[in-house]
């Protein structure tokens, strides 16, 4: 359980974007409403070079959120000690405003799987997740935010709903939550439930950051809609509407635009941030 003294500073209640090196000069020259940046931790675990130099410069101008994708918080095995050490070093010198990881697993034995895979919501899974969160928070010396996954199937052995599972993980460990609104929409469509009902059950008071991203549309083997969380296109109108639903209930939160594949030019990404600012402007501070 993390003590209050080691909870990190909050991100500003402003739009952020996932940082891409091709946007470096334009972000500095014409940031628009962008008030913070997010990086993937695994891209900055090396020693020296231009990427780290640029990140140091950006961190003098913008609060930084570090988003991990490789810890395998939900994996059955122990967390990778070398990966944790590299993460500790990055967080130590960068001193980010936020650090987050996924409720998912991506390792089996010594193999790393290039995907974020779902897990059943059981008492045993919850205990393992909480042990791993405690280990991460003790190692890096700060609070972690845990992100809800995008789901393509449900496990019959699950005994917890996802919102209740996340709420209990936060209660036991002192972690915060990262609410990915696009993931909620994707999962609700794929598993045929109401995204608004999910939000109503979600512990919004624990949210330290919100993510938005694009998704691809497909069909399953029965011709039913199947959405794929791709981060490769603009946020669709129903996800923007779901963000409004969230903010009406949570109040203003830091809102990130994720666009990791088929990355657009800076004006296009900045326009998404401007739309996020408009959503925030609707909500009383």
Briefly, what is this?
The chain has helices spanning 24-29, 50-59, 81-94, 123-140, 162-173, 181-191, 195-201, 237-250, 266-281, and strands spanning 15-18, 36-40, 64-67, 98-102, 105-108, 111-117, 145-147, 176-180, 207-213, 215-219, 225-229, 255-258. It has 285 residues and is α/β, with parallel strands linked by helices. A hairpin with a 2-residue loop joins strand 5 and strand 6.
Protein model, in words:
With 285 residues, this protein is of the alpha/beta class. It has a single domain, classed as Divalent-metal-dependent TIM barrel enzymes (TIM Barrel, Alpha-Beta Barrel), CATH 3.20.20. 38% of the residues lie in helices and 20% in strands. The protein has nine helices and twelve strands. It has helices at 24-29, 50-59, 81-94, 123-140, 162-173, 181-191, 195-201, 237-250, 266-281; strands spanning 15-18, 36-40, 64-67, 98-102, 105-108, 111-117, 145-147, 176-180, 207-213, 215-219, 225-229, 255-258. An eight-stranded parallel beta barrel has the order 1-2-3-4-7-8-9-12. It has a two-stranded antiparallel sheet with strand order 5-6. Helix 4 (123-140) crosses helix 5.
CATH C-level category: Alpha Beta
Assigned CATH superfamily: Divalent-metal-dependent TIM barrel enzymes
* Helix and strand pattern: EHEHEHEEEHEHEHHEEEHEH
Q: Would you give the CATH topology?
A: TIM Barrel
Q: Give the domain tally.
A: 1
**How much helix, percentage-wise, in residues?**
25-40%
Number of helices: 9
Give the biggest beta sheet: 8 strands, parallel, barrel
> What integer value in Å does the Rg equal?
18 Å
- As a percent range, the share of strand residues is 15-25%
Mean pLDDT: 90
Distance between the termini: 31 Å
Q: What is the 3D form?
A: globular
Widest sheet, order of strands: 1-2-3-4-7-8-9-12
Structural class: alpha/beta
How many beta strands in the DSSP annotation? 12
Organism: Ruegeria intermedia
Family: Belongs to the UPF0276 family.
Protein name: UPF0276 protein SAMN05444279_113103
